[in-house]
Amino acid sequence: MKCWLLWVLVFFSVQVAAQVSGQGKDAWIREDLLTAQGEALSVSVKGLSRKEVGALAVSLNEQLQQWQTALSAEQPSHEMPAALRTACETWREKTANHVSCRLGNLTDLWQGVAKEQSALPERSEIRKQARALARLKVEDLPQQSNNVLRWDYQPVLNGFLLDNALKHLVTGWPGIEAIELRLNDRLVQYSREKNASDYALQLSDDLHHVAVADAPGSLVMNNRAVAINAYKKLEWKSEHRRFSRLINPVDGWPKEFSPSVVVVAPDAITAEALANALTVMNIAKGIALINRLPETEALIMTSMGKVFASDGWYSLLIPDESHQALWERDMEFLVEYQTLPQAVAEYRRPYLAVWITDTDKNSVRQLLVHGESLRWLREIPLWWRRYGRRDETMIDGLARATPLPGQHMLVWDGRDDRGNKIEKGNYILHIEAAREHGERELVTLPFTLSGSTFNAAAKGNAELGSVSINFRKRS
Asked: Which spans are transmembrane here (predicted)?
């Protein structure tokens, strides 16, 4: 195993003074353990005495060294490398090859490019290597030469270690009331009694480097894990271009202008694997993946600050009193719009953008675009000129297939592009359509938000038919 593993959890020092808050066994006692490479593993425990926490830290240090020895031995049949490989392959399948531990040689190549600031490799050749790695049969992998395949467990390693460390400690010290483990930007928390007010992650303190939707309040952490990928920490530059340090396993190429990602999941390995996958995936497809997984939520923020959240993300937040929602969860803001059929020989579906502004035409929320090609989205003139060209990174999260003629519907959650709840006031809904060999049309619909139910409607006459807003009680 190469030297990159040395940073993981080798030769922990347990001599750092513990931090204590509270009194007696009701206190949180924290041990800060240091790796040989200076990486910090923070262990915070509630329910044990100072002496017991010291013994716990020594035991954890010994266990971590055993795991490190197993990884360094490069024994394919050993329990820990085998378990890591199984976890890697499981998540590679679940994410459609957007997280992979097969990329050791490609990782070495890109680290060399970043370090030496050398010319970028030939993209077609890198893509060919990535596709060849994806096609390899799992049962053949242990026999492959390192020239073809080198395992790199980093995409799931921190989560794997945190989960196993948590299991070791909770099993060995039944008196633990609650425990929190942090390694870099990975965190896992366990408590025997769930209490949202006691076990919550302060967003403003802990996630400030991601600027999570400028979100005040706290993230409910009861028996969950969190993984954070902050683009500023993952970035490197070459030839005046900004790249992510995470490689997309699909094409072997690091993503330019990668987003920041926060994932909350039942365990740390799930959170880490998904955070790494979402960093390189198409945003809309990534959010759809999260919405299919139980007890898992995510927030993605583009490098320009646009926020995309899974369906249940905001339900995990305990908002500050100053940040109450404009409407309760039993209300919904429904937008319906119609694309008209056209009596032409060569009909092409229209490209279409839907967005909300204030009365000064400042963007409040980009809701969606129909069309997945930048080439044709540029044909939506007003939207592209004012908004689309200024932040192409957001289009991954907005783009949908071009619509068939008929009635279409979407729901707005009342948040702006940065995830903040909007205030009462006057706004404008905009829907702009453009069709190849057809018309370009813009329909605007002013409305006022006061918290009370209302209806509003407008009508197009070429590409768009009826457009309506219905702010109502959920049926």
From this structure: none
* Strands of 317-318's sheet in order across: 200-202, 218-220, 317-318
Kind of pairing, strands 28-34 and 40-46? Answer: antiparallel
| Residue in the block written with tokens 């072997």 | 252
Rounded to whole angstroms, how far apart are CA atoms 12 and 8? 10
Q: How many CA atoms lie within 13 A of 79 on its CB side?
A: 3
CB 413, CB 368: distance < 8 Å = no
Fold of the domain built from segment(s) 326-473: Immunoglobulin-like (2.60.40)
Tell me the β-bridge partners of 336.
Answer: 409, 468
**Using CA of residue 360, residue 361, residue 366, residue 368, what is the dihedral sign?**
positive
Contacts of 66 (CB under 8 A, 6+ apart): none
pTM of the model: 0.86
What pLDDT shows up at residue 225? 94
- The residue among 380, 445, 287, 286 whose CA lies nearest residue 388 is 380
For 243, residues 6+ apart whose C-beta sits below 8 A from its C-beta are 114, 235, 236, 237, 254, 255, 256, 258
Kindly report, residue by residue over 441-467, the tens digit of the pLDDT: 999 999 999 989 999 999 999 999 999
Residues of the chain within CATH 2.60.40 domain(s) are: 326-473
Write the DSSP string, 201-215. Answer: EEHHHHSTTTT-TT-
Residue with tokens 């457009």: 467
Name the residue among 179, 206, 145 with its Cα closest to residue 60: 179
143 and 136 Cβ atoms separated by less than 8 Å: no
Q: Give 11's pLDDT tier (boundaries 50, 70, 90).
A: very low
Task: Give the span between the Cα atoms of 432 and 464, in whole angstroms.
Answer: 8
3 state DSSP class of 153: coil
> Bridge partners of 203?
none
**Beta-carbon count within 10 A of 111 CB:** 13
| Mean of pLDDT over the chain | 83
Could you tell me the CA-to-CA distances from 189 to 43, 169, 179, 415 in Å, in that order? 10, 12, 6, 29
Using DSSP bridges, classify how beta strands 225-229 and 218-220 pair: parallel, antiparallel or unpaired.
unpaired
